[in-house]
Amino acid sequence: MPDLPSDSNVSGSTPLPIFQRNPAADLRKMRRVITEDFSWSLAMVPPLSELCLQQIVSNFEKNPILDKLVPKHKTKVLDRISTLLPLKVTANLISDESYWKRCCAQRWAVCDISQYRGSWKRLYFERHLQNLIECFIPDLTDAQSILEVAELGKDYVAKLEIQQLLPPVKLEDKKEGEVDEISDSGSEVDLDLPSMDHFDLNLIANCLHGLEELHLVYGVKDCGVNFQWNLFNFTEQDCVSLAKALQIFKNLKVFRLNKSKVDDEKVRVLVRRLLNHPSLVHLDLSHNKISDRGARAVGKLMSQSQLRILNLCNNNVRSNGAQAIAHALSKNNSLTSLNLRLNHIVDEGGQALCQALLHNTSLMTLHLGSNELSEPTASVLSQVLSQNTTIKSISLSCNRIGLDGGKQLLEGITDNKTLVEFDLRLTEIGQESEIFINQVLQNNQEQARLEALEKRPPSRV
Question: Which of 55, 393, 394, 451 has the highest local Cβ count within 10 Å?
Fold first, then answer.
């Protein structure tokens, strides 16, 4: 009789339950995995590449890895790294515009990229450097940080618009009874004189080899109740330092120095360094204190440079200064725009400038508003309008030209085909003359529009 299986009895009755025969084996077979999160799946586990990217982002400042990444991973890293990373890490490493756009949006609410040739990186470096310079206080702020930013941004900074330059902090008067330190020779050891009156651009001039535009205001904006005249003072030391810096900026095309109390002596110092400048084409010295001597220096600059735009608005230029500028204008063949608004050139200066236009063939815009001009100037200008074929815009607003002057201007403009703008507001020329002059201007504007359409290249279908 063959042996029966061990798990059955001889009598053929029902076998014993399995947990009674082998408890350990039975427990293993009874185990079950019961999940509590029904949304869990294997897809929720991040891939190894994602974990690596997270480590690269979190350690980017100490170990910046970017160029070795494939494009899709590089994009992810640039989208995640902080905008507060030091410039010494990001300046030369990151050229991606989306990153610099995030940096700009983080700092400034309004960012007009059209003013920076469409470059977010240039916008960031220029405005960052401007902010540092505008907040610099001589002998109190460390200039090393400005020098570092200028060095890092030397390939991206092309324009600086400095809206304020702060003076040194005025030291409090010494306490009563305090004795000055005296050296053995009897002179004071510490004179408490500042090392500079305002930020010295020579500190960063050698770094900004690509600077093309510079706008400066030696004053404090939003000073409010703390107003003091010494907050608006372009000193001799400032002038000498700026003149040296201008000579270093070989690629400078536009220079503006406004609202800084620039007088004749200081403008002569600046002009001396700008003579024969290789690139300067736009000079703006408006809203200063330049008189005839300074105007003569500017006239010399016109004769020895390639200036195209000159703005001396709101100064103290009188007839002699205007005559010096007129003399230079008569021999100049590069200037296209001259602004002498809000000066005191009177008819002697106005007539000289108009006579210069009989010889000049480059000037296209002339602004002589608010200069105490009258009918004699209008008489010479009438002759100019009948002969000159390059001038396109003239402003005589806020001058007492009078009815006779208006008639002479109308006579001169009748055969003119190039003038398209003629500002005669508040000149008392009479309504009839004004109406006929406007008709001539409208005809010239329409003709200019048609000529522009003819020159426009044909559109591609």
Answer: 394
